[in-house]
Amino acid sequence: LLSQRLRVASVPAHYLTSINTFLICGTVLQTARVQHLGSEMAKVTKNLSQLSIEAKEQFLDSFDMVQTDCDGVLWMLKDPYEGVAESIKELRNNGKKLVFVSNNSVRTMDDYRAKLEKVTDYTVEEEDIVHPAKVVIAYLKERGFDSLCYVIGSKHFKKCLRDAGIQVLDGPNEPVNESVAEIVPVIADKKPVGAVIVDFDYNCNNIKLLRAQLYLQHRDCWFIAGAMDKVLPVGPKMRLLGPGYYVEMLQDITDMKPIVLGKPGLAMSKVLKRKYAIENPQRVLFIGDQPEMDVKFGGISNFQTLLVGTGGVQEGDLQKYVSLNDPYLVPDYYIGAFADLAQIVRDVAVYKTTKANKL
Questions:
Q1: Closest Cα partner for 191 from 174, 157, 214?
Q2: Was 104 annotated as part of a binding site?
Q3: Known catalytic membership, residue 71
Q4: What are the beta bridge partners of residue 151?
Q5: How many CB atoms lie within 10 A of CB 165?
Q6: What is annotated as the active site (predicted)?
Q7: In which domain, by residue range, is 304 found?
Q8: Is there a binding annotation on residue 252?
Q9: Contact between residue 103 and residue 135 where contact means Cβ atoms under 8 Å apart
Q10: Does 195 have pLDDT greater than 80?
C-alpha cells in the first residue's frame, strides 16, 4: 500500500525498488521472530521422577482430585499393572479424591467394579466410575430430552441407556440383501429420531451408518458421539480401528459437528465439572496414556495433565506432539507408570516430616 501511494506521488522507480526490498525484509524478519518466539514458548513436559524433591512437593500440593483413565494406565486387558493399588492407596492417604474416567462403554459396570475393587481395597464407589454411556445419560436428562435415539454402540452401551429410560432404536445387525429396493426401506424408515448416538460397536456396518446419515439429515436431530478413539490399543503391538472413524465419516457426509460426550469432548468436561462440583479445574490432575484422548481432554478442561508410558507412548515420543503445535496434546508431566506415583508420595511425606522437625 505504501509503495502504491509513492508511485502515485511520482517517486523515482529506483527509490521504489529500495523501499519494497526494505518492506519485504522487514516482513520476513518479523515472521521469523514470531516463529522463533513460538518455538521458545513451546510447552515443555516435566519428567516427574527427575524433579527435585521441592518440585515434587509443589506438584503433589497443587491438586486435590485425580481423574484417571483405566485401560493402559491401571491395567491392560485383564490384570492390573503391578504397583497400581499401592499408588491409589498412597494418593488417597494424601487426601486426593480419585475418579476413574474411561472411554470404554463396552465393559460392563460389574467388570469395572471387579477390576477397580482389586486396586482400591474394595472401596470404589459406582459414582466415581465414568464412561461415555453414563455421560450421555446425564447430558440427556439435564436437558429433559425424551425423544427416540438411534444408537450405534455395544450391547452394554445400549442397555445402560435403556435402563435409564432412554428410548433406543438400533440395528440392523443381520445382513440385508444387496438390493436398493430392500435397503431403502431399512435406512429411510422415517422414524421420529431425535438424536443419533455413536459409540464403539463391534458389529458396526454400512447399513447402520447409512441409517444414521439419513436421520441426521433432519436438522433438528442431535448428533452425539461417545468414544472418539480412532485407535484402540489392546496390547504393546496391537492397535485396532476405533469408533472415531465412524463419527468422522458421519460428520463429513452430514456437515454436522457432534456433541462429544467421551474424551476428549468439551461437552463431557462440562458434565463432569458439574457432577463433581469442580470450581477450580487447575486443582485437578488428569492421568492418561494417550495424548489424543486423555491429555487433550485434560487440556481442554484446564486440568493439569500427566502422561504415563504404559500405554505405548514413551517420553521420547513427545517431541512428535510438540511439533503439531497443539498444546493440548502435550502433557504437563510424564512418568513411566502409574505405579511410580507411590514412591513420589512417600518421598514427599518424608521430606515434609524432616522439614517440619527442623523448625
A1: 214
A2: yes
A3: yes
A4: 197
A5: 10
A6: 69 (nucleophile), 71 (proton donor)
A7: 46-99+276-357
A8: no
A9: no
A10: yes
Candidate list 64, 71, 189, 340, residue with the active-site label: 71
pTM of the predicted protein model: 0.86
Determine whether the annotation assigns residue 89 to a binding site: no
Q: Compute the CA torsion angle 40, 45, 51, 57 (nearest 10 deg).
A: 110
Do 226 and 291 belong to one domain?
A: no
Residue 316 and residue 95: Cα distance in Å, rounded? 32
What mean pLDDT is reported for the chain? 90
DSSP summary character for residue 64: S
Closest of 128, 171, 137 to residue 152, by C-alpha: 171
DSSP per residue, 124-153: --GGGEE-HHHHHHHHHHHTT--SEEEEES
CATH for 88: 3.40.50.1000
- Domain identity same for 281 and 248: no
Q: Give the pLDDT confidence of 38-71 residue by residue, as tens digits.
A: 444 678 999 999 999 999 999 999 999 999 999 9
69 and 169 housed in the same domain: no
Catalytic residue chosen out of the listed positions 69, 170, 201, 332: 69
Three-class SS state of 14: helix
Asked if 280 and 256 sit in the same domain, the reply is no
Q: Is position 102 annotated in a ligand binding site?
A: yes
CB 90 within 8 A of CB 57: no
